[in-house]
Design a protein that fits this description.
17 helices, single chain, four-stranded antiparallel beta sheet, Multidrug efflux transporter AcrB transmembrane fold, mainly alpha, 433 residues, 2 domains
């Protein structure tokens, strides 16, 4: 019975070829308009798993309580000295705060008022005693530099140091390291190079650790999940803000971005890398495979058109079912082309073989349906069932992919049988050679 039905369909599409083609054109036009007007994608990876699962509900509750865990950008500010890193991070935070609509939450914990008042409380008692004692001893020098922060003030400070040596308050050996630290930036200034000096390093009496030259600003931006890269606007705004405050010249620093959002954006951004080249190469490989299998430009055109029509129909049906695509379900298009083209190839190859035996187009199409119709039906049904088996999954991305791809396999089968038949008839595809 299945063979009879399939042969009847092919015979009808052969006799009413233009009617089938016109119907396909209208359907393609309608579904294309629908897809263009209703296309949307949600790139929020947190929605790919069902929110009904107990463990997922606990995770969402944790995210609501500690909202800074996700959807944040960690802006790492680095500079040659701790002071420059602090100044750069404060300047960048203030610049970002000018866009509250894009950056509603900005946290610069290291430069908060709390740490500005209580930072010494986090050091060991011995270090606090040493630092405060040295600051008290250096108070006259600090006062001079604060009141006259230029070369004249520096020379007055050196005079006070020499006076301290004469009075045996300290020795030349005690001044070796401070004077060496002063000498380096002075030499850079004289050579016309950017220079910086760290009082914190001087007080600490040791070379700063890499972490001491960094400041981390936690930024929670407004994300656009309708874009392939939800945080692209925010990350670009941060980089622009860093350029506006001249972080590379004024603070001799640089800015790097990390965190959940930049990492996800970089992953999604790889999809756009060489997209045009990849599409061109893929299309060329597809046409090469079709040529090797069919060796007829007209048949290749018929199969190619059927794939395009089927893809438009499947896209519209998919949007009707799930409303919004996700980063996984959008892969239905690749699956449709990669697997769906096989149905057209199998039917067309059988038609060429039948046409070689019977030099008459319509009986050749009818015989092709008689011999490969049932196997293609079983193959399409098995493939669709394989994709539809994803439906029970709590992984929403995979479940929706299976739903759309499963329906797409049936669409690919129907277009390969009906539309390819009509196009082969109209194009009057030649006898196989």
């Amino acid at each position: 019975m299945l063979k009879t039905r399939l042969v009847s369909i092919v015979n009808y599409c052969t006799q009413r070829a233009w009617l089938v083609i016109i119907a396909a054109v209208l359907l393609t036009f309608i579904t294309s308009i629908y897809s263009i007007q209703n296309f949307s994608i949600n790139t929020d990876v947190n929605r790919l798993i069902s929110a009904d699962l107990p463990w997922r509900q606990r995770e969402l509750a944790l995210d609501r309580t500690f909202s800074h865990r996700n959807e944040s950008i960690l802006t790492v500010v680095e500079a040659p000295t701790s002071e420059l890193a602090s100044q750069a991070s404060v300047a960048l935070s203030q610049k970002l705060a000018e866009k509250p609509d894009l950056f509603p939450v900005i946290r610069n914990q290291a430069e908060s008022d709390f740490f500005a008042r209580n930072a010494l409380l986090f050091l060991p008692k011995e270090d606090v005693a040493r630092i405060t004692g040295e600051l008290a001893q250096a108070q006259p020098i600090v006062q001079v530099l604060q009141g006259d922060p230029n070369l004249r003030g520096l020379m007055q400070s050196l005079t006070l140091l020499l006076a301290g040596i004469q009075r045996n308050f300290f020795t030349l050996d005690d001044l070796a390291r401070p004077l060496s630290m002063f000498a380096a930036p002075l030499e850079d200034v004289m050579a016309g190079k950017p220079a910086g000096f760290s009082w914190r390093e001087l007080v600490a009496r040791k070379t700063p650790e890499p972490g001491e030259l960094r400041r981390i600003i936690e930024v929670k931006p407004v994300l656009d999940y309708s874009a392939l890269q939800p945080g692209a606007v925010a990350t670009e705004a941060i980089r622009q803000a860093a350029a506006d405050i001249k972080i590379d010249t004024e603070y001799l620093g640089r800015v790097r971005l990390t965190g959940a959002i930049p990492i996800q954006d970089e992953e999604f951004g790889t999809l756009k890398e060489n997209a045009g080249l990849n599409a061109t190469v893929s299309l060329g490989l597809l046409l090469t495979i079709l040529w090797l299998a069919l060796r007829s430009a007209k048949i290749i055109l018929a199969v190619f058109i059927s794939i395009f029509v089927g893809l438009c129909i499947t896209a519209a049906l998919g949007l009707m079912m799930v409303t919004t695509l996700n980063p996984i379900s959008i892969a239905f298009a690749v699956l449709f082309v990669g697997i769906g083209v096989d149905f057209g190839i199998q039917f067309s190859v059988r038609y060429r073989a039948e046409r070689y035996e019977i030099d008459d187009l319509r009986p050749a199409l009818s015989n092709a349906a008689l011999h490969v119709g049932v196997p293609l039906t079983l193959a399409a049904a098995a493939t669709a069932a394989g994709f539809l088996s994803f439906l029970p999954s709590d992984y929403k991305g995979v479940s929706e992919l299976g739903q759309i791809a499963g329906l797409g396999m049936m669409v690919a089968f129907l277009t390969s049988i009906a539309l390819v038949t009509a196009l082969v008839n109209v194009l009057n595809c030649p006898v196989a050679t």
